[in-house]
Amino acid sequence: MKPIRKLQMGKNGLSSEFVEQVRTFFEKSELIKIDLLKSACRDKEKARKMGEELVSALGDKFTYKLIGYVLVVRKWRKSRR
After folding, report:
1. pLDDT per position as a tens digit, 45-79
2. CA–CA dist 14, 58 (Å, integer)
3. Domain annotation for the chain: domains and CATH numbers
4. Positive/negative CA dihedral, 51, 6, 35, 68
């Protein structure tokens, strides 16, 4: 099993640079955990919205799950949405 990569999302939020960084991480990994820092958001609805925006920017082979303030993003072989 490959190690799980971890990222942190801070006050810049969901920028295009962050999305590109996530894409490069998915070249070698199937699962990434993204910690949402306090400066990014402390609202569950906003965190869910950020997760939706991230997977829509990545493509239809990606899904996410929000656990606390951690986004677990997974890449699948086939389209899931």
Report:
1. 999 999 999 999 999 899 999 999 999 999 998 87
2. 12
3. 5-75 (3.30.110.60)
4. positive
**CA pair distance 13, 9, nearest whole angstrom:** 6
pTM: 0.87
Residue holding tokens 């190690």? 3
Q: Which amino acid is at 21?
A: Q
CA distance 67 to 6: 14
Question: What is the maximal distance between C-alpha atoms in the chain?
Answer: 34
| Terminal Cα-to-Cα distance of the chain (whole angstroms) | 25
| Amino acid at position 46, single letter | K
